[in-house]
Amino acid sequence: MKIKSNYDIKPRYRKFLSQHVGLRVSEHACDREIKKRDITAPGNDCKEVNTFIQANKNDIKVVCGKGGTPKGKNLFKSNKPFPLVTCKLKSGERRPKCQYRGKKSTRYIVLGCDRGWPVHYEEGII
């Protein structure tokens, strides 16, 4: 029997961190952060919505274990709410003309997890 390693998860986890974890991201910094982190939709289009979780990666990782509740299909809902900055596209279709409006909120987060590692941000729930 072949044992699955975590090597295939690492790039997906790093992409998740880059796209969704921003301890110090402010609602006024959406344009800068999305550009700096090279976040796009497929085809180099502007991404409609991107959410940054204002927490450290270890606090987020526990959602995929004892800090979360399984929701089926590898999804886990956090047991506690997290501070978020949600950046919504206000103008532009293709990079670099993307302009965003940011909004702060506190929500429970739903993450897609693979073998205990967060690899996908699904949604925030009030």
TrEMBL record:
<dbReference type="GO" id="GO:0004519">
    <property type="term" value="F:endonuclease activity"/>
</dbReference>
<keyword id="KW-0540">Nuclease</keyword>
<keyword id="KW-0378">Hydrolase</keyword>
<keyword id="KW-0964">Secreted</keyword>
<dbReference type="GO" id="GO:0003676">
    <property type="term" value="F:nucleic acid binding"/>
</dbReference>
<feature type="domain" description="Ribonuclease A-domain">
    <location>
        <begin position="9"/>
        <end position="125"/>
    </location>
</feature>
<protein>
    <submittedName>
        <fullName>Ribonuclease like 2</fullName>
    </submittedName>
</protein>
<dbReference type="GO" id="GO:0050830">
    <property type="term" value="P:defense response to Gram-positive bacterium"/>
</dbReference>
<dbReference type="InterPro" id="IPR036816">
    <property type="entry name" value="RNaseA-like_dom_sf"/>
</dbReference>
<keyword id="KW-1015">Disulfide bond</keyword>
<dbReference type="GO" id="GO:0001525">
    <property type="term" value="P:angiogenesis"/>
</dbReference>
<dbReference type="GO" id="GO:0050829">
    <property type="term" value="P:defense response to Gram-negative bacterium"/>
</dbReference>
<dbReference type="Pfam" id="PF00074">
    <property type="entry name" value="RnaseA"/>
</dbReference>
<dbReference type="GO" id="GO:0005576">
    <property type="term" value="C:extracellular region"/>
</dbReference>
<dbReference type="InterPro" id="IPR023412">
    <property type="entry name" value="RNaseA_domain"/>
</dbReference>
<dbReference type="GO" id="GO:0016787">
    <property type="term" value="F:hydrolase activity"/>
</dbReference>
<comment type="similarity">
    <text>Belongs to the pancreatic ribonuclease family.</text>
</comment>
<dbReference type="InterPro" id="IPR023411">
    <property type="entry name" value="RNaseA_AS"/>
</dbReference>
<dbReference type="InterPro" id="IPR001427">
    <property type="entry name" value="RNaseA"/>
</dbReference>
<dbReference type="GO" id="GO:0004540">
    <property type="term" value="F:RNA nuclease activity"/>
</dbReference>
<keyword id="KW-0255">Endonuclease</keyword>
